[in-house]
């Protein structure tokens, strides 16, 4: 996809009367940083980029829009919000539509077919971050790192994010405007991360998660970044009843993480944002993908693929398997 | 909650039901020390009048505003105590029951264990009682009409009773005629009344009754709503015969190009009918129906030059353009009388039902001995070579009943007697025949049954105790291989005819009826009644009642009795004209509801809808509960991610302290 086309489209959309702003990616302040950009007019569109560094799922911002009380005599601003989405991000939009988190008329979806983004941790590990701004581009079969005069060819396998290795929806499943040509869809590959844990026995698994959850600092970054964790009044914050105590200890951390995973079963669209932002490096992606796999294998349901689908939690068939109920 | 909770705790002995494994005094003493408990007492039967008076007096004298009764299941006496405290001026929903009988005394043997658990349960109930909220029950109007599904003897009787009481009845029957199984029977045990003679007048009555709207050859497509206010959609299937014009003369059937080609359902496939047919001569309504699958014109688009039926019909009643028609109406109560299927004998391959023409079922024998049957009542059977009058006849009982191998553990309750009756009828027709009955047990439990069984045995019908293992052919004869278990003698009995006493099974299509009315099945797969003893015709869905064999195998007297019971139960809301709707329904916190509508899709009672509300200037969608439809099941609450919908009296903040109280006590 040409940058020029992206910026031109963004400018057109931002200028539309019924659009409040366009949410896209823009260069960050240093190194590999990429920041979300909120573009209100055509001029701002020049800042936007799309590169293997654009890991963030911008669909999160759709539900963060605060609906402030409308003063008497005024009308609510019900202009649309435009958002740029990769394949995985588009699934979040589709799932939001399914569960009425947003209305179709509230959003303009700008689809960006995505060859796969880099794993920021791996990147920083192998090519330490510097203060100067660095660009990374997609090449035929990998990435090209451009730092000043220097150009480094990097193979796809070396830096590709885990979620992208497993991705079967690199092309947006829903869009109003599609940028560029669709990218090649890859076949379903074994989720080694999940399989590795599944193959352990119960005690080992318990010990594994105990170790992981013990690290949790309860910063709630995973919840805040998640495009599908958007209840205004999260039950995990409630005091009466207190489902999860505020104390940061293994028991409460486990309750928090398990509750979040269960609330996402059949809803998580595997964008991997929770894992990316976790300061404690808890493999939350594996946890959520395990539940997604159960839902897919047992019920043949995959969230965020069809915006018209019946929500998984709210659909029931008489022959649904229930062998896991003790 | 402005007033301070003042809880009274009442621990019931229930005779020795509770007191034998629970030290009720210790429980009462323990309860006395719990927070907010003003008084704790025990009494031998809390549900009795003196027991209730005890509670009422305490309410008046001590100013109690919450009551905990520790006794049996709330399914049993919750209404009793609600009423009692209401009479003493306390909101009836300020009652909490601790089930220390079914869930405690009955399952423990040691008094220490039972007492410790009873204390926990009472402590938990007190914890919740303090947090209960006052609720009000509401009343809505009830439609003074009933829907009866199925027009066998159960449906007919229920319809007649309700119609005679002055209420409108919609009687829906799937087949072209009313009458059901009973119409197929020859004589009825043990009195030997002719089945048709006692049934046909009722069939005619229900068709001509001014209060009954008979919808034959129709199926219920959809039922929504709730007790007092069910909305029903019925599909009247196309008969391709104008109902009003048809005189029932039968010229069409006689002229049909495919005359007498298709197995007659009424004659169990032993007789033949045309593509246009009346199921049987006494059918009600006496209107012909075209079987679209077999009619040449309807299936192939061509029937000679012109369809013969159309040519001969003087009334010009044949209408090939006819379409299914949808009928909609409203009723206050529903009676399900969908009947049974007979056991498919080919599922017991050792009896050779599918292989030998002279192995027949009891229902086939019924048609064979009937004067209106395919042979005009002559017992003639094809033995694979020729048609003979059987001389050696064996009956086998419990085919498909009391048999775990086919998944039917239950007794079908009618086979013992219909086999005895058929043996008697055969003896009547063939005095020199050798008739024997292979049985496991003889269950002649009803009025006049034992006497009839005795009479049949005296008529030289031999009863041999043994369950045949196999039936095979030897020459022109069938060999029944069996052990006479009373004499421990293995037998190879050569016979001309075997009659299988097949049992009763739930209808194959009962799943559809279950979905239609949200009914459940008992372990035997028949419909589940609300309580096996005290609510035998009610179902878990209020306003829906059961009659006849859809609830379990029954003979005709029991079926009629149950139909009359169902009719009188169904008439309660109709006669009252009002129904009380539950107060323990779900409620929505519209401030936190995010409008995902999961609850709408998951609600089994379609009780929730989305409405648009104004939230500080923004139009947002939130869930709203129709309290008349809601049963308070809590499914919505389980689906809600933001905990914004919860059943009243079962809110998290009420249940969690209850659970906590169970945990803290050692």
Task: Write a short abstract of this structure.
The complex is a heterodimer of chains A (326) and B (666). Chain A is of the alpha/beta class and 326 residues long.
List keywords for this structure.
heterodimer; A: 326 residues; alpha/beta; 2 domains; 6-stranded mixed β-sheet; 3-stranded antiparallel β-sheet; 12 helices; B: 666 residues; Rossmann fold; FAD/NAD(P)-binding domain; 5 domains; 5-stranded parallel β-sheet; globular
**CATH fold-level name of the largest domain in chain B:** FAD/NAD(P)-binding domain
Whole-number tally of structural domains of chain B: 5
Strands ordered across the widest β-sheet of chain B: 10-7-6-18-31
SS strand fraction of chain B? 25-35%
Radius of gyration of chain A: 21 Å
Known CATH architecture of the largest domain in chain B:
3-Layer(bba) Sandwich
Q: Which range does the strand content of chain A fall in? A: 5-15%
- Using the alpha-carbon principal axes, give the shape of chain A: globular
Structure overview:
The complex is a heterodimer of chains A (326) and B (666). Helices cover 33% and strands 14% of the residues of chain A. Chain A has 326 residues and is α/β, with parallel strands linked by helices. Chain A starts with a helix and ends in a 27-residue tail after the last helix. In chain A, helix 8 crosses helix 10 (250-264). Chain A folds into two domains: 1-187, no CATH class; 190-320, no CATH class. Chain A is globular, with a radius of gyration of 21 Å. Chain B is of the alpha/beta class and 666 residues long. Chain B folds into five domains: 7-136, Rossmann fold, CATH 3.40.50; 145-237 and 324-339 and 507-578, FAD/NAD(P)-binding domain; 251-312, no CATH class; 342-505, FAD/NAD(P)-binding domain (3-Layer(bba) Sandwich), CATH 3.50.50.60; 586-647, Alpha-Beta Plaits. Chain B has 18 helices and 36 strands. Chain B has a five-stranded parallel sheet. Chain B has a five-stranded parallel sheet with strand order 20-29-23-24-25. A four-stranded parallel sheet of chain B has the order 2-1-3-4, sandwiched between helices. In chain B, strand 24, helix 13 and strand 25 (461-465) form a beta-alpha-beta unit. The relative contact order of chain B is 0.10. The model of chain B has no long low-confidence stretch (mean pLDDT 95). Chains A and B meet through loops of A and helix 16, strand 35 and helix 18 of B.
């Amino acid at each position: 996809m040409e940058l020029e086309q992206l910026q031109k489209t963004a400018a057109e959309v931002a200028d539309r009367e019924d659009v409040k702003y366009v949410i896209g990616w823009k260069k960050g302040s240093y190194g590999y940083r990429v920041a979300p950009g909120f573009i209100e007019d055509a001029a701002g569109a020049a800042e936007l980029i799309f590169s293997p560094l654009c890991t963030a799922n911008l669909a999160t911002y759709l539900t963060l829009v605060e609906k402030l009380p409308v003063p008497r005599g005024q009308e609510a601003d019900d202009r649309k919000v435009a958002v740029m989405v990769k394949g995985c991000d588009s699934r979040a939009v589709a799932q939001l539509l399914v569960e009425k988190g947003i209305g179709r008329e509230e959003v303009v979806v700008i689809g960006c077919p995505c060859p796969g983004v880099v794993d920021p941790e791996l990147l920083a590990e192998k090519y330490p971050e510097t203060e100067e701004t660095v660009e990374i581009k997609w090449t035929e079969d990998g990435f090209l790192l451009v730092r000043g005069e220097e150009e480094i060819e990097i193979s796809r396998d070396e830096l590709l994010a885990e979620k992208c290795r497993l991705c079967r929806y690199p092309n947006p499943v829903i869009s109003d405007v599609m940028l560029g040509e669709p990218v090649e869809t890859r076949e379903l590959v074994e989720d080694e991360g999940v399989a590795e844990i599944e193959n352990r026995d119960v005690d080992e698994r318990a010990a594994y998660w105990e170790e992981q959850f013990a690290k949790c600092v309860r910063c709630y970054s995973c919840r805040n970044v998640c495009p599908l964790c958007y209840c205004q009044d999260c039950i995990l914050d409630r005091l009466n009843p207190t489902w999860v105590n505020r104390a940061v200890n293994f028991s409460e951390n486990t309750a928090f993480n398990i509750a979040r995973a269960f609330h996402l079963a059949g809803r998580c669209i595997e964008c991997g944002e929770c894992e990316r932002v976790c300061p404690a490096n808890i493999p939350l992606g594996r946890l959520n993908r395990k539940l997604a796999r159960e839902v897919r294998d047992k019920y043949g349901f995959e969230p965020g693929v069809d915006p018209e689908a019946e929500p998984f939690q709210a659909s029931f068939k008489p022959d649904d398997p229930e062998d896991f109920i003790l | 909650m402005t007033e301070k909770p003042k809880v009274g705790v009442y621990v019931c002995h229930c005779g020795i039901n509770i007191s034998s494994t629970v030290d009720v005094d210790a429980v009462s003493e323990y309860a006395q020390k719990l927070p907010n408990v003003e008084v704790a007492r025990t009494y031998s039967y809390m549900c009795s009048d003196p027991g209730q008076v005890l509670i009422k007096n305490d309410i008046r004298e001590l100013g109690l505003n919450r009551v905990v009764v520790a006794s049996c299941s709330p399914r049993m006496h919750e209404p009793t105590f609600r009423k009692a405290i209401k009479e003493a001026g306390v909101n009836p929903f300020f009652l909490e029951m601790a089930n220390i009988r079914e869930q405690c005394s009955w399952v423990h043997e040691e008094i220490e264990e039972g007492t410790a658990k009873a204390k926990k349960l009472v402590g938990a109930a007190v914890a919740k009682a303090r947090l209960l909220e006052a609720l009000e029950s509401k009343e809505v109007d009830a439609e003074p009409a009933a829907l009866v599904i199925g027009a066998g003897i159960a449906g007919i009787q229920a319809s007649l009773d309700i119609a005679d009481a002055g209420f409108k009845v919609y009687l829906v029957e799937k087949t072209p005629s009313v009458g059901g199984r009973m119409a197929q029977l020859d004589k009825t045990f043990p009195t030997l009344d002719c089945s048709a003679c006692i049934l046909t007048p009722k069939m005619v009555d229900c068709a001509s009754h001014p209060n009954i709207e008979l919808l034959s050859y129709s199926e219920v497509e959809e039922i929504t709503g709730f007790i007092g206010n069910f909305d029903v959609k019925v599909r009247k299937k196309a008969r391709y015969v104008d109902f009003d014009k048809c005189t029932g003369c039968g010229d069409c059937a006689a002229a049909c190009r495919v005359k007498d080609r298709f197995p007659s359902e009424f004659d169990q496939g032993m007789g033949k009918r045309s593509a246009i047919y009346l199921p049987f001569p006494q059918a009600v309504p006496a209107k012909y129906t075209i079987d679209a699958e077999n009619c040449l014109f309807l299936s192939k688009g061509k029937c000679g030059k012109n369809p013969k039926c159309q040519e001969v019909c003087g009334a010009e009643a044949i209408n090939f353009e006819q379409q299914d028609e949808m009928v909609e109406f409203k009723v206050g109560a529903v009676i399900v009388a969908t009947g049974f299927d007979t056991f498919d004998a080919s599922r017991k391959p050792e009896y050779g039902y599918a292989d030998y023409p002279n192995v027949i079922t009891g229902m086939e024998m019924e048609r064979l001995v009937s004067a209106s049957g395919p042979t005009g009542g002559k017992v003639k059977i094809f033995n694979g070579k020729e048609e003979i009058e059987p001389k050696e006849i064996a009956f086998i009982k419990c085919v498909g009943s009391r048999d775990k191998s086919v998944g039917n553990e239950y007794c079908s309750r009618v086979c013992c007697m219909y086999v005895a009756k058929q043996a008697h009828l055969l003896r009547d027709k063939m005095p020199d025949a050798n008739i024997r009955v292979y049985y496991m047990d003889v269950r002649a439990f009803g009025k006049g049954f034992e006497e009839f069984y005795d009479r049949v045995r005296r008529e030289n019908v031999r009863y041999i105790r043994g369950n045949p293992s196999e039936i095979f052919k030897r020459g022109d004869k069938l060999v029944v291989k069996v052990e006479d278990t009373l004499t421990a003698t293995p037998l190879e009995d050569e016979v001309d005819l075997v009659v299988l006493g097949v049992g009763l099974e739930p209808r194959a299509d009962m799943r559809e009826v279950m979905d239609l009315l949200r009914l459940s099945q008992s372990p035997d797969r028949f419909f589940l009644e609300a309580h096996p003893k005290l609510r035998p015709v009610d179902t878990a869905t209020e306003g829906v009642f059961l009659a006849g064999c859809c609830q379990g195998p029954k003979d005709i007297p029991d079926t009629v009795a149950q139909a009359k019971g169902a009719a009188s139960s169904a008439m309660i809301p109709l006669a009252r004209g009002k129904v009380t709707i539950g107060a323990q329904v779900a409620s929505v916190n519209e401030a936190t509801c995010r409008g995902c509508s999961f609850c709408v899709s998951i609600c089994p009672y379609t009780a929730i809808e989305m409405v648009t509300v104004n939230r500080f200037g923004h139009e947002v969608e939130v869930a709203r509960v129709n309290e008349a439809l809601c049963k308070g099941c809590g499914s919505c609450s389980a689906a809600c991610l933001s905990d914004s919908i919860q059943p009243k009296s079962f809110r998290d903040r009420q249940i969690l302290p209850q659970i906590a109280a169970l945990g803290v006590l050692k």
